[in-house]
Amino acid sequence: MKKLILSMALLGVFVLFSAQEAHSQLAGALAGKVGKGKGGKGGGGGSFTAFNDETDAMGVTGEYFGLSDGKAYGLRFVKEEAGKMVNKLHYFEKKGDEPQLKLDLKENYYTKHQVKLFYFWISASASGYVELVEVDPGVIAQIKSDRSYNDGPVGLDATRTVVDVYAKDKASFDTWDVETAQAKLDMLIGSLKAEESEKIKKNLMKFESYGGYVGKIAFAKGTNYLRNQRENEPVEKVANFITKAELGSTVAYKPYFEMPLEVSHPGAWFNITYEMLGETTDREVLRKTSSVFSENIPQIDKDKGIFYFLFPRVTVDNSSNSADYAFLELLRKNQEKLKVGDVYDLKVTIWAYKDGANIDPVASGTIQLEYTKEATGTKKLLFDPVDGWVSKLEKVLD
Amino acid sequence: MERKTTIVKASVVLLFLMVFSAARAQESQNTILNGFESGNYTVYKLGEKGKFEKVGKPWPVVITKQGGNVSEVLVKRSGILDEPFAPDVPGYPAYFAFKDLRLSFLNDYAVYYEWNGKQEATTKYVLVKEGGDFNLDPGATNKLVAAYATATFKNQTSARDNVKAKKAELAEAERKANSLEEKAVAKIEIQLVSQPAKVAHFSEAIKYGVVATLKDGTMLKTPNLGGKIPWEDFELAHKGCSNTIDEVRVDVDASSLTDDVVLLQITSVYHPSLKASLAINTTNDVSVQVNQNGFWGNERHQHMTVFQGVDGQHAGNGDDLVIKVQTVRHKKTGASLNKIEIYNTSKAKTVAHYKLTPDTPLIINAKGGQGMNGSKGRQSETAGGNGGNGGNGGSVTIIKDPSVASFNVTINNQGGKGGNGGPPYYNTGIKGNDGNPGADGYTDTKIASVNLNF
Question: Which residues contact B381 (CB under 8 A, 6 or more apart)?
Answer without folding.
Answer: B309, B310, B425
